[in-house]
Specification:
Aminopeptidase, eight-stranded mixed β-sheet, 4 helices, 8 strands, 28% strand, globular, transferase
Length: 191
């Protein structure tokens, strides 16, 4: 994970994914208040705090506040943040999704190093999946670097399965694996 085994990557080369903790969805709550963290929809007012976390997790590759704001306000895009209760809380994690029709793409997910391996990424995903399901999404897609074992294991625990491969997609000729999760069943949409 970021800080121990390097940042986890997801998405195109300039759009790495995030450091992800182990899943706790199977044994605990999926969203809401947990260990002092509230998961809520992200707003443009959160862009600077998300960008600050991006810079810590992905030095030299993190999104700027303008990029985050664009992602939060673009067509079919939504985000969720985990933070302290209250107006504009400090942000410990975030997820950004883009939904078009019945497909939602996981654009970005990140969790502060001090919050990793506590189930926060799983709770963020659960909140995001509930939100995009309400918008009509039936499946979620993402890309992850083949050499990113920690992220691949996390996504497998969350129920994602590999459906395709993009050769030499990332820097240093690393393949991208395209993963899918069916929202109705928690399995590959084609199953």
């Amino acid at each position: 994970m970021a800080g121990s085994a390097g940042p986890l990557r997801h998405g195109r080369g300039a759009r790495p994914g995030a450091a992800l903790p182990a899943s706790s969805r199977r044994g605990g709550r999926c969203a809401g208040v947990e260990a002092g963290r509230v998961i809520r929809p992200a707003t443009v007012d959160d862009a600077a705090a998300i960008a600050d976390l991006e810079q810590v997790l992905f030095p030299g590759e993190g999104w700027s506040a303008v990029q985050v704001a664009d992602e939060l306000t673009g067509y079919g895009r939504r985000g969720w943040v985990a933070g302290d209760a209250g107006p504009l809380p400090g942000i410990a994690g975030y997820v950004i999704m883009r939904t078009v029709g019945d497909v939602s793409d996981l654009q970005r997910i990140g969790v502060a190093v001090t919050e990793q391996r506590a189930g926060l990424a799983s709770r963020l995903l659960a909140a995001a999946f509930d939100g995009v399901r309400e918008e009509g999404a039936e499946r979620v897609l993402l890309e992850v670097a083949e050499d990113n074992a920690a992220a691949r294991a996390f996504y497998a625990r969350e129920g994602f399965v590999e459906i395709d491969r993009r050769p030499k997609y990332y820097r240093q000729s690393v393949d991208a694996l395209v993963l899918e999760l069916g929202l109705a069943t928690g399995t590959a949409a084609g199953d």
